[in-house]
Amino acid sequence: MERILYKGNIDLLLDKAAKLAIVGSRRMSDYGQRVIEKWMPTLVQRGVTIVSGFMYGVDQAAHKACLENGGKTIAVLGWGIDMKVSAADEKLYQEILEVDSLIVSEYEGEMLGNRASFPQRNRIVAGIADAVLVVEAAEKSGSLITARLAMSMGKPLMAVPGLVTSKVAEGTNNLIKRGKAVMVTSVEDILREMGLVNEQLEIGFKPEKMSNPILVALESGEKSVDELSLCLKIPVEKVMEEVLVLELEGLIEVRFGKYLKKF
After folding, report:
1. Half-sphere exposure for 136 (CA within 13 Å, toward CB)
2. Which residues of 4-33 are buried (b: 16+ CB within 10 A; e: fewer)?
3. Is this structure's pTM higher than 0.85?
C-alpha cells in the first residue's frame, strides 16, 4: 500500500483516542445487534473510536450505533473511494462525514470491491485499531482474516461467545476455544483488555434493569431453558438467545443448568 485516500476528518488516524475495530458476520443475528447496541454507549462515553469495514451486518451496525451515541467512527472501504453505493449505504456514508468522522480507502475512483480487495482492506482495519473485537463470525468468515492480522500485529483480540447452535458463531466460539481470542461478556471486559478501566468505572458500572419476560419468570426462582420455554410459550431457540444476552449483560447466571437472577 503506497497511500491512503480519505474523506472526512483525517486527524482521527493521528489522535490519541483508543481505537477498537468491531468486525463480524454480514448475516448478523438479533443477538449480535443487541450486543453492539448494549455496549456501544459505554465505549463512546470512554472516548473509544470505532473502526470497521462499512459492510452490511456487524460492520454497519457498529458504525451506526457509534454515531447514534455521539461517537467517532472510521470506515475502511474495500472498494474505490468514489464508488457509488446504494441509497441506504449513502445515508450512512453521509452521516459519517457530517459528524466529522472518517472514510478511508487505498483504492482510487469507482473501483468495485473484489475477492482480493476485501481481505486487503482487513489489514488496514487491524492496522488502525488498538484492539479487535469479533462479534459474530462463521468458520470461514472474512472477519477471521482481520482476527489473524490482529494476532500477527500483537494487538488484543477479543470475541463474543455465541450460541453453539448458530452457524454465525462457529468462528467466534472457536477463536475462544482455541485460546486465540479473549472471551468478553461485558463492556468492562473490553475496556480492561484495552487498558481503559479505572477504579471509578469499576465501582460505578451497574447493569441496567430490563423489562424482560425471562427476568419476570425468574422472579419465582431458577428455571432451565426448557422450563422457561414452557411457561413463556417461547421456542427453545429463542429462549437460548435471550438468556445468553441477559447473561452477557450480567443480569442472570447459570448454575447446574438452571438460570437465576443476579439482582
Report:
1. 26
2. eebbbbeebeeeeebbbbbbbbbebbebbb
3. no
Q: Which three cell numbers stand for residue 84?
A: 457509488
How buried is residue 112: exposed, middle or buried, by Cβ count under 10 Å (0-12/13-18/19+)?
exposed
Does the CA dihedral 129-18-248-233 come out positive or negative? negative
Specify the pairing of strand 5-8 against strand 102-105: antiparallel
Topology classification of domain 213-261: Arc Repressor Mutant, subunit A (1.10.10)
Q: Shortest CA distance to 78 belongs to which of 10, 14, 139, 23? A: 23
Would you list the domain boundaries of the chain? 5-203, 213-261
Cα(5)–Cα(106) distance, integer angstroms: 6
Distance between terminal CA atoms of the chain?
52
Residue 198 confidence (pLDDT) = 61
Torsion of CA 25, 26, 30, 34, to 10 degrees: 70
Q: Is 5-203 a CATH 1.10.3720.10 domain?
A: no
Which pLDDT value is given to residue 216?
85
Distance CA 51, CA 164 (A): 27
pLDDT mean values, one per 10 residues, the chain (263 residues): 83 92 92 94 95 94 96 95 89 94 92 83 92 92 91 94 90 94 94 77 40 84 89 86 80 84 74
H helix or E strand, kind and range, residue 49? strand 49-52
Q: How many CB atoms lie within 10 A of CB 247?
A: 17
